[in-house]
Specification:
529 residues; TIM Barrel; Double Stranded RNA Binding Domain; 17 helices
Length: 529
């Protein structure tokens, strides 16, 4: 199979997605990470768009990229403007990148209603722009915007626009489904026909408005494209662009193509998570290949099958893309789930032992009461230890009180919590203040424990979620609280359930702290022997 060139447009097309934003430093860090990953082209931004993009082109020259070429993005010259005087074309040259990617029109609708020029002038705009950039020593990638819609409306004119780019010297023509409305068979048929008529190497650039972007990209490649454009995590305007995190493993593992530096595929999940972190966007758990749930098994039959032969319920080995298998526990679990989860946690149990049955029975009882452990594995571990009578509480609650006071309508609420704990034979009575009841309780708990367990100082709450379980009960309904905590290295989830949201929150907080103390105790044992 052939090598497919990877063209990442996350910094330009991806940044047009709602809620997606890169800082100036973040753009440089992202480009360096993509270079190390083995992407061939990094589109840094729209040269004539904003100062941040031009600053990126200036600053990236100071970095020693080992593999990737940086591309500046722009459009063909404007109608009736000499190419050397067009400010967009001049900005592309000012960006001083090895590659220039320009878009032009292939759809007569756009020529008539958007450019408001003639079909002939549009063809001249394409040819002049490509030729001018080539004369200035640039590698030129031409993106015929809305090409597939244009081809369906007037195939001969759409092909004439491509011929103009090809004859002017374009190095690659990346066919675009800009509205994202085409289906895979259309992409394949049209790309294959273009390949018969145009000798210039073809690429594919599609959007995801019909949820077909990955499939359409693969069909474009199957029809002869040797260059694919997309974004990490599928970021992009409206519903997003083609997701390189799905395209890359499909190309390598399913279609036999080369498209990364050798040995880099196992970094795929790391790159995806790094991108979420840079953009401050919560990762999509259900994302194929790289999502936390991509290789998570919940149904007992599936878990039993994976235990016997992973191929029975996994389409690839998760480690190939840097992911890992997860066993979930819920009311759907069987003994296989509990057994494998216990083994995963390092507990020594036998699959057919009475302990496994006891754990399963307790799991079912708790879930009937409203507990959910899929996102609260730390609480599940503590539950297992309690069932096995192996749990050692690090402290005991004697009582707590939370006061919320608003002294004046113009002043914010003041929240204060007091807790009374028994810790290592001593009684601790401490106070904490916070933005709300849970924040204040968390502060009071830390104040009480830090003297005895200084290691909890590194733990922070990274997420707090509340769900009302019985809405028909109104204010008397049970509440489930899920807390996510991190010490900077590990992340874990805990759960609490009660008719009182403060009590549910306290339960989850206690599990969070105890789990951290358990990890530290386990680490100390391992270090000592």
């Amino acid at each position: 199979m052939s090598r497919i060139a990877l063209y990442d447009t996350t910094l330009r097309d991806g940044a047009q997605g709602e809620g997606v934003s890169f800082s100036s430093v973040g753009k440089i860090l992202f480009a360096k990470r993509l270079d190390a990953f083995g992407v061939d082209y990094i589109e840094g931004g729209f040269a004539a768009s904003n100062p941040k993009d031009m600053a990126f082109f200036r600053d990236i020259k100071k970095e020693n990229l080992k593999h990737a070429k940086v591309a500046a993005f722009g459009s063909t010259r404007r109608a009736d403007i000499p190419v050397g005087e067009d400010r967009g074309i001049c900005a592309l040259l000012e960006a001083d990148t090895a590659v220039c990617t320009i878009f032009g029109k292939s759809w007569t609708l756009h020529v008539r209603d958007v450019l408001r020029t003639t079909n002939e002038e549009n063809v001249a705009m394409i040819a002049d722009s490509v030729r001018y950039l080539k004369e200035h020593g640039k590698e030129v990638i031409y993106d015929p915007e809305h090409f597939f819609d244009g081809y369906k409306a007037d195939p001969e004119y759409a092909l004439a626009t491509l011929q103009a780019a090809a004859e002017a010297g374009a190095d690659c023509i990346a066919l675009c489904d800009t509205n994202g409305g085409c289906l895979p068979h259309e992409i394949y048929d049209i790309t294959r026909e273009v390949g018969r008529r145009i000798s210039t190497p073809l690429g594919i650039h599609v959007h995801n408005d019909s949820d077909m972007a990955v499939a359409n990209s693969l069909e474009g490649i199957r029809a002869g494209a040797v260059h694919v454009q997309g974004t990490i995590n599928g970021f992009g305007e409206r519903t997003g662009n083609a997701d390189l995190c799905s395209i890359i493993p499909n190309l390598i593992l399913k279609m036999g193509h080369e498209c990364l530096l050798e040995g880099r595929l196992s970094q795929l999940r790391e790159v995806a998570m790094y991108t979420y972190e840079l953009t401050n966007i919560r990762p999509r758990k259900s994302a194929p290949f790289v999502g936390e749930s991509a290789f998570a098994h919940k149904a007992g039959m599936h878990v039993d099958g994976v235990r016997k032969n992973p191929d029975s319920f996994e389409h690839i080995n998760p480690e190939k893309v840097g992911n890992n298998r997860r066993v979930l526990v819920s009311e759907l679990s069987g003994a296989s789930n509990v057994f494998l989860k216990a083994v995963e946690m390092g507990l020594s149990v036998d699959r057919s032992s009475p302990e496994v049955k006891s754990i399963l029975a307790e799991l079912e009882r708790l879930e009937k009461d409203g507990y959910e452990f899929e996102a609260a594995e730390a609480s599940f571990r503590i539950m297992i230890q309690k069932v096995l009578k192996a749990h050692k509480p690090f402290f005991d609650l004697e009582g707590f009180r939370v006061i919320v006071e608003k002294r004046h309508k113009e002043e914010p609420c003041i929240t204060e919590a007091t807790v009374k704990l028994s810790v290592k034979g001593e009684t601790e009575f401490t106070v904490g203040e916070g933005d709300g009841p849970v924040d204040a309780l968390n502060a009071a708990l830390r104040n009480a424990l830090t003297r005895f367990y200084p290691e909890i100082a590194s733990v922070v709450l990274t997420d707090y979620r509340v769900r009302i379980l019985d809405p028909e009960e109104a204010t008397a309904a049970k509440t489930r609280v899920l807390i996510e905590s991190s010490d900077g290295k590990d992340t874990w989830g805990t759960v609490g359930v009660s008719e009182n949201i403060i009590e549910a929150s306290w339960e989850a907080l206690v599990d969070s702290v105890e789990y951290k103390l358990f990890l530290e105790e386990k680490k100390a044992r391992e270090d000592n022997g």
